[in-house]
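Possible regression after last week's pipeline update?

I re-ran a chain I had predicted before the update to compare outputs. Posting the input and the new output here so someone can diff against the archived version. Not blocking, just want to make sure nothing changed silently.
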Amino acid sequence: MFKNNFLFIIIKNMYYKVSYNYNLEKKKLDFVSYIITAYNKRKYLQNVFQALAIEGGSHKREYIVVDDGSYDNTLIILKKFASKLPGKLIILKRGNLGASYSTNEAVMSASGYWIRLLDGDDNVTYKSTSKMLYLAHRYKVNFVYGIISENKSNINSMPFNHFKQSREEGLKKFIKNCPANSSSILVSKKRYIMSGGCNENFISPDQVLFLRLFSAGAAVFLNQVVAILPSNQSKDRLSSQIKRSRYESILALINFCNENPNLEKLFIKLAFKRALSRANTYNKRLNNIYFSSHWFNYILSKFLVPKYYKKLMYNALKVFSGNLYERPKAWKTRAEKICVSNNSIRK
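New output (post-update):
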């Protein structure tokens, strides 16, 4: 039985010759679908939409906003700004199922060749999408990403630096850390879907998504700020909840190894070492324990990767979850709690 639902879907549909609408027509090569997920983001949305309204660029665009079960009248703000946007606004409203589920749902309904992801409290910078589109066409790639920042002061003074990153370079970077979030991404709809999209069992889709996208090949990195984080970030953001954030970062590496059964030894070693290093570091910081099995496993990871390396990676999760493998219920996505989540985007 296939462990990877997405792979099963691909093989099944190849057999039945099912085709999907990836919006590959030439006339859509400059058509961008902005995917915006919003859960109780009313106080941020005015700035988000003002930034979108003045973003600039000559590309065609549409805006798909998923109101993910908000109860703060988010919908009122969305409708208020619809006429100010340089493209059609599509609103998808339903009960709360999480950002990952919402993103996958919106991508499937997108009409553009390109997908620009955006969290409901992040602001695009001037012509950032246009710049990423230019790089995608110049380098003939279908994945470009930039920098996110809270600092607005130096955006306009940053030089237009960019370079192509190979699959190996990208995977090394995002195994070590996740220095970007999904608001920095421009990706073709086809690559997003073929890579698996967001894992709906993760509250934050970022690291899993970057690892999946780089597993599929090269990208271009734009060394400029393409999205501004709010200075008063929502407490719902994963980065503000350190234990859950670190738990998911290790789980993302486990997920990466599980999804790639023929993964090169180099990446297995990097993922294994990173997971155990992070567990040891935070066992000291969070639990004030300096010598433990986590310390021993970390030392082990410096020299070899045992056959049971995944077992040790799963064991590393215990540092953050009260010595349990299983996540606390509060750390699960709403979609996972009610058993409608999927490991990959539904096609």
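Follow-up from reviewer: compared with the archived run. The two ends are 19 Å apart (CA to CA). Marking as no regression found.
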